[in-house]
Design goal:
Blueprint: E1 8-12, H1 18-27, E2 31-35, H2 38-41, E3 46-49, H3 54-63, H4 67-75, E4 80-83, H5 85-89, E5 91-94, E6 107-112, E7 123-127, E8 137-141, E9 146-150, E10 155-160, E11 163-169, E12 172-175, H6 186-198
Parallel strand pairs: 1-2, 1-3, 3-4, 4-12, 5-6
Antiparallel strand pairs: 6-9, 7-8, 10-11, 11-12
């Protein structure tokens, strides 16, 4: 149930687990809506880039005319939260990009795709995330990337197994894992607070 003045947060609905993010954002007191076109992007205060397949997402963003509008909004300070493939999309550099794969940028980091293994090596783990109160969050890692290295402006929020799995730079937040699949909406709550603060 949202309250008056709740921020409007979009979920990039080109590919991936859009519905779960819409539910998690609504539970964290945001007005949540899918975003597929530039005119829909113009109407939101912040945006979630969901998991999925980062190469496909990149190509669809170009096809739907979303790549440049997204880059412009991110550069202008719109808060963005990327999960899994979304983390790859907000990276400035991919260590092992597929042919033709582009990113939106936003976080000064180098990421490795599918770093935690293939689909059948997916797992859940408790992750302590800086800025999220109430103990560890359950992280669902599905063909998850990790962050190889970060620039000086990037805040590392969480690590798992010696690898960086959650980061923030300014108004851009990213996690290797999927909090939207657990029913624990605290990471989305952190992002909703970021959007509120940026308005």
């Amino acid at each position: 149930m949202t309250t008056p003045g709740s921020p409007v947060i979009g979920v990039l609905a080109l590919q991936g687990d859009v519905r779960e993010h819409l539910i998690a954002l609504a539970a964290a007191d945001a007005v949540a809506r899918p975003v597929r076109r530039p005119e829909e992007l113009a109407e939101v205060d912040g945006l979630v880039i969901p998991g999925g397949e980062s190469t496909t997402m990149s190509k669809l963003a170009v096809l739907f005319g979303m790549m440049e509008p997204l880059r412009e909004r991110i550069a202008a300070g719109m808060p963005v939260y990327g999960t899994c493939a979304g983390l790859i999309m907000v990276a400035d550099k991919i260590l092992d990009p597929r042919s033709g794969q582009e990113t939106l940028g936003g976080i000064d980091m180098i990421v490795r795709r599918n770093a935690f293994g293939r689909q059948n090596e997916s797992f859940e783990a408790s992750v302590e995330v800086a800025g999220v109160d109430g103990g560890p969050v359950d992280g669902v890692f599905i063909r998850a990337p990790w962050v190889e290295s970060v620039g000086a402006e990037v805040e590392v929020l969480a690590e798992h197994g010696g690898h960086i799995v959650a980061v923030r730079q300014g108004n851009v937040l990213a996690t290797s894992f999927h909090p939207e699949l657990t029913g624990d909406h605290r990471v989305h709550g952190l992002f909703v607070d970021m959007v509120r603060a940026a308005r």
